[in-house]
Amino acid sequence: MTELRHKSVDIAVELCKQIITLSSAVIGLSVGLLKDSQKGGGFLIASSCFAILSIIFGLLFLMVAVTNINEHSEKIDIYRKSIKIPIGNQIFLFVLSLLSLIAHIF
Length: 106
Hints:
The protein has 106 residues and is mainly α.
């Protein structure tokens, strides 16, 4: 694997791990706010669900990335559909969870 491709895989994996960590924090914040909420918890439950789905897609991305590295160690491409779809969904769902959390606050 060339050095540049190796670096791009490392960066994508680090991004995925950071989003998993932030999604876990969103779940904790949503549960904490749900306990003290006076408005109802529709947006908070949606926020938690989106964050859980984001974590699931992040784990799926990590599994696909490891599989692609093992099978195609010299020709690894971070722009394959099998890699782009899980990480794209993870980012999209994380943004939705944040927007749901913000909608509940305002």
